[in-house]
Specification:
elongated, three-stranded antiparallel sheet, about 120 residues, alpha+beta
Amino acid sequence: NQYILTFDKIDQFATTSKDVLAASISITNHGEPIGLLTPEKYFPYQFDNAVSEVAIRSTLREDLYIILVSPPDADGTTAFKFIVNPLVSWIWIGGVALIAGALLAFWPSRERPVPLVTSEQKED
């Protein structure tokens, strides 16, 4: 795929427990707009470290991850990390198929068990 990612804006707001930076990134593929992703960076009041919220666009073909690496500098420069992982959804689909196959294999059969013949029954 040929993604074109456009950094639209960055919003800053506060909640009761943290300050949040949220970047808006428009995504187009071969000229077609396909969505808007919003990676975020949290700054919790009770901790010193920032927490990144990864924006994910998942399809059967691939996953696109966008990470807000650093907040805007004084000149407005912002750093992002973009990752494209192919066929991730098929791992999950394969896992579900594996579990379904295992359940089917271990499901008890409908055949009645064959009765065992004891030595007393043979003499009669």
